[in-house]
Amino acid sequence: MSAQLGAHFTAHFTAQLAAQPAPVKPVRSTIRLTRRGRLVLAGLPLMLGAGLMLLLAGAFSSPAKASGALSAPETVRVTVGAGQTLWDISTSVAPQRHPQEVIAEIVQLNNLEGTIVHAGQQVFVPSSR
Questions:
Q1: 3-class DSSP state of 86
Q2: What is the dihedral of CA 30, 33, 37, 43, to 10 degrees?
Q3: CB under 8 Å to 74, separation ≥6 — which residues?
Q4: pLDDT over 90 for what percent of the chain?
Q5: CA of 39: how far to CAs of 28, 45, 48, 50, 53, in Å?
Q6: Half-sphere exposure of 15 (CA within 13 A, CB side)
Q7: How far from 11 is each of 94, 118, 127, CA to CA, in Å?
Q8: Could you give phi then psi for residue 35, rounded to 5 degrees?
């Protein structure tokens, strides 16, 4: 009986081993790069490096760095009188300079859209140099 039982167990385990699927061999995935992919892979670091170089070159050669400390022009606040124009203000504030240059500075200092000012309006004008 023990021989019969041993044969039975052997047959049973052999059948179970045969019924199990074969072990799956892992598949290695390979990355395939196209021509465009290789260009992007090589070109992206080059473009980033070039951008960084331009940024650094601009930072070291900017006018603010070249001229040292920035100094704001000396200005005076003037209240526009009735019938007064920027031409009148510029000739009274800086008589030695051309009025058009002074008007351009006044427009820039005050972020004016044009050269029209109204009575009572306060504007910054460059002080005489």
A1: helix
A2: 90
A3: 126, 127
A4: 23
A5: 25, 11, 14, 16, 21
A6: 6
A7: 116, 111, 111
A8: -60, -40
pTM metric for this prediction: 0.44
**What is the residue type of 106?**
I
The number of angstroms, rounded, from the C-alpha of 66 to the middle of its chain's C-alpha atoms is 23
Residue 47, classified by CB atoms within 10 Å of its CB into exposed (0-12), middle (13-18) or buried (19+), is exposed
Three-state DSSP class for 36?
A: helix
pLDDT digits (tens, 9 = 90+) for 49-78: 999 999 988 887 776 554 555 566 688 888
Please check whether residue 51 is in contact with residue 104, taking contact to mean a CB–CB distance below 8 angstroms: no
Residues in the chain with pLDDT values less than 70 = 1-9, 11-22, 63-73, 128-129
Contact 66, 57 (CB under 8 A): no
State both tokens at 119.
């009575």
